[in-house]
Amino acid sequence: TSGGRFEAENASISQGVVESNHAGYSGTGFVNYDSASGAYVQWTVSAAAAGPVTLALGYANGTSADRPMDVRVNGALVAGGMSFAGTGAWTTWQTRTLTVNLPAGTSTVRATATTAAGGPNVDYLEVRP
Ligand code: GCU
Prior knowledge:
CATH superfamily: Galactose-binding domain-like
Shape: globular
Bound molecules: alpha-D-glucopyranuronic acid
């Protein structure tokens, strides 16, 4: 499996904007989801062989309210309403992880906001073989 870090600012973004006004992110910025259910960031990753990997999503949520997201791999829901709780500040970045099975070849990983508040600010997706 080809692991590594995939920056949100280089991913496919629907209803979100790349910003860099909250320090501590990796790469050149992060994605500020629009305040809309359905807003998403989608990454393309690849695996040499099928098997389980850990996905880590780097994020910040400076509010005290959860910003849940659905996580889909190749269109299939693998985590519904996954919690992205407040991190204390927009400059405090944390990770949330889940384990998924990837097929061999390229896969899409999409993180979609499920509430009208939109997602948290998302920094990256990391694939950990
Ligand atoms: C603030 C913050 C943004 C964040 C937004 C939100 O405007 O500066 O980075 O995305 O709140 O609530 O989503």
